[in-house]
TrEMBL record:
SUPFAM superfamilies: Thioredoxin-like (SSF52833). Residues 337-368 are annotated as: Disordered. Transmembrane segments: none annotated. Residues 197-347 form the Thioredoxin domain. This is Antioxidant AhpC. Pfam families: DUF4369, Redoxin.
């Protein structure tokens, strides 16, 4: 959802003084009534006539805005408003939920899309964090008042896609007086958590309840390598990730001292128990029923799942949000170079033997 929001968001490099904007809108679903525009500390309204509506006004810098069909609810139909002639197509569902289907008219929309496309197309680059920092720094310096720049930085911080020091430096470049208050508060919390959970820092000795109903400290199960995994039974990407980590656990638990300490953000205890039994979880599995409201998770900056920390036997953080492939490469570099992380076999499926390194010297003739 955040990615869609950012894709629809707009960035303007105009000056700080107020400039005119217009919004010409079209409603694709049947609707008669008022449409409300929320931006900054203002709220404006207009009436939909023949599925069309129009707003006009002034805005000094790119500002977080939203469209709604009720003066009581503004948290729908998010976008970033700037001084431009915008056209928007929306759909209204369940009588109150506004969905933005398309947004056009921003001279900077192409640049925004280029940034996001670049980010995901080059996700495998080892120096991608440095490249993203450089690009975002250029955007912020051109217009530190832009709320879009703040939202984009918040996105990178949430996903821990850039190191703490660079994130803090970019945060300091923003004009705090013009940024969205919610985004600033979120970044403050996350930056504080990042400062305490950087690679090389000591991960706090957390404790959560096991299936037996007793608390279990992380320090009581730590091995040479421990993956502290934040997941949930109803999160499909999490479950897929967990199964790959499970195969690594089976392969390297005894030989390399690799173990897992799972924290499930599950509200229903019985559902959680059924899940870990069905998946055959053999490592330490704990539950955080308060989910993201749990104070321990807040202190660690866990705002989405799956998330993880890889630590050593002393609790020192070796990696943050490492992939199964990354763990495999760290535990057994030679094997990881030739064999992908094994996926869970379906019942009755034929197993293929693992690939073996090719001996390039075999059956080759030496030059005379």
């Amino acid at each position: 959802m955040r990615f869609l929001f950012l894709t629809l968001s707009l960035l303007s490099f105009g000056r700080g003084h107020s400039q005119n904007f217009t919004i010409d809108g079209n409603v694709s679903s049947p609707y008669e009534g008022k449409i409300y525009l929320w931006y900054g500390d203002k709220v404006d309204s207009t009436t939909v006539v023949n599925k069309e509506f129009r707003f006009s006004g002034e805005v000094g810098y790119p500002t977080k805005a939203s469209l709604s069909v009720s003066r009581k609810f503004k948290d729908t139909g998010f976008f970033v408003l700037e001084a431009s002639n915008l056209s928007v197509d929306i759909a209204i569902e369940n009588r109150h939920q506004v969905y933005i289907k398309s947004l056009n008219g921003s001279p900077s929309l192409t640049q925004v899309k280029d940034f996001l496309v670049y980010k995901y197309k080059n996700a495998s680059l080892s120096n991608l964090p440095e490249l993203l920092v450089a690009r975002l720094e250029t955007i912020i310096k051109q217009n530190p008042k832009s709320q879009f720049a703040g939202m984009l930085l918040s996105e990178l911080i949430t996903d821990r896609e850039i190191p703490y020091k660079q994130a803090q430096r970019l945060y300091n470049l923003l004009d705090k007086k013009t940024q969205d208050k919610e985004d600033l508060e979120k970044m403050d919390v996350l930056l504080g958590a990042m400062s305490r959970t950087q690679v090389g820092s000591q991960l706090p000795d957390i404790s959560f309840e096991t299936e037996k109903g007793t608390p279990e400290k992380l320090s009581s199960v730590r091995k040479k390598y421990t993956l502290v995994l934040f997941t949930a039974s109803d999160c499909i990407p999490c479950v897929e990730n967990d199964r790959q980590f499970a195969n690594l656990y089976k392969e390297y638990h005894r030989s390399h001292g690799f173990t897992i300490y799972s924290v499930y953000l599950d509200g229903e205890r019985n559902t959680w128990l059924d899940h870990i039994h069905r998946e055959g979880v053999r490592w330490s599995a704990t539950i955080a029923p308060k989910k993201f409201k749990d104070e321990t998770l807040k202190s660690l900056g866990i705002t989405e799942i799956p998330s993880n920390f890889l630590i050593d036997e002393n609790g020192k953080i070796l990696a943050v949000n490492i992939t199964p492939k990354g763990v495999h490469r760290g535990l057994d570099p030679e094997a990881a170079a030739y064999v992908p992380v094994p996926k869970k076999d379906k019942k009755g499926a034929k197993k293929n033997p693992p690939l073996k390194p090719v001996n390039k010297n075999k059956n080759t003739k030496k030059r005379k």
